[in-house]
Amino acid sequence: MIDIKVPVVGESISEVTLLKWTKADGAWVERDEVIAELESEKATFEINAEKAGILKHGAAEGDTVKIGDVVCRIDETAAKPEGAAPAASKEEKKEAAPVAKVETTAPVAAVSNDIKATPVAAAIIADKKVDVGSIKPSGSGGKILKDDVLQALSNPGKVSFNGGGLGSRNVRKEKMSNLRKTISRRLVESKNTTAMLTTFNEVDMSRIMEVRSKYKDKFKEIHGVNLGFMSFFAKACAIALSEWPAVNAYIDSDEIVYHDYADISIAVSTPRGLTVPVMRNVESMSMADVEKKVVELAGKARDNKLTMEELTGGTFTITNGGVFGSLMSTPIINLPQSAILGMHKIQERPMAVNGQVVIRPMMYVALSYDHRIIDGRESVSFLVRVKELLENPELLLFGKDPVKTLLEV
After folding, report:
1. Which listed CATH number (2.40.50.100, 1.10.1380.10, 2.130.10.10, 3.90.340.10) goes with 2-87?
2. Nearest C-alpha neighbor of 340 from the set 321, 358, 353
């Protein structure tokens, strides 16, 4: 009998929560097959079978277990039952869960809001062109069932909460996950320990949208990834951070720690909560490098595959409320960092240009910063520089106007 223990997942983490068993008690498991998912205060991770054999659970879903505790055992001496199926591949698992995807044109770096549905439910949604936003999933894991779709069709304009039925007065209580507890603690700590202030500006996105429209197909053909908006914002921030180092620094006791590189965190919303993976040395990355890394990190966040290394060490954060339709917000600083840039929804608005009223695609941007280390001049100048770089994307090449560089003025 082999003991499977909770592995060490971080220096400061002493306990984790058993989210779910992926293999039932008494089931046959193959070596290296995923048998359980655990959640720490920072991320989720999987436990694999060290040997093939019969699995014996040692804890229940939702239990809190300490690092080093025996979470289950495997009887490797047991004979493999006849007809036991081999472990399903990742591709097979993906195919086994049909989804009705919600398409979005939001120019953001975030996990796509896929809606899971049973095959029958998905077929009805497609046939009847049902707005999935009007459907309240009642299946496990937020899956849409056939009855959920039929209820939405039979009660237009009326919704039920959590599949509780129309007119329900039900009240539910759920234990907070370790990740949600950590998010709660860190947000309160950020508000209480920093002198946080927010400055706003707006960006004319016309030039970037022109560049994307002109080159997106060629970019996808060459690099195998879509040309999004995050690469423009990340590169603009990297240049601005090099020019305003206080925005890229943080306070450590009575010292200011400056960083001569831009490790930019990107806030990603997942079903389990907010995660903030890090892109390293953005100042040295190409546009394609940024887009590939965004796709990689967002995918890992969606699949709960982010490592501790990918979640720590950022020097500045970019968050995007535009994916949810936010027009303006005041983002909260991601400790121990000193500043965070908030992107928002692109909206066409009438603007005065050279004495004429023209319609332009505009985005409000917000910079929340710690006033203890960043002065108003630095914060405003940083945001104005980001605005300048985004409105003139050719400046992203090396941060200077090509004509002025040519004339040496």
Report:
1. 2.40.50.100
2. 321
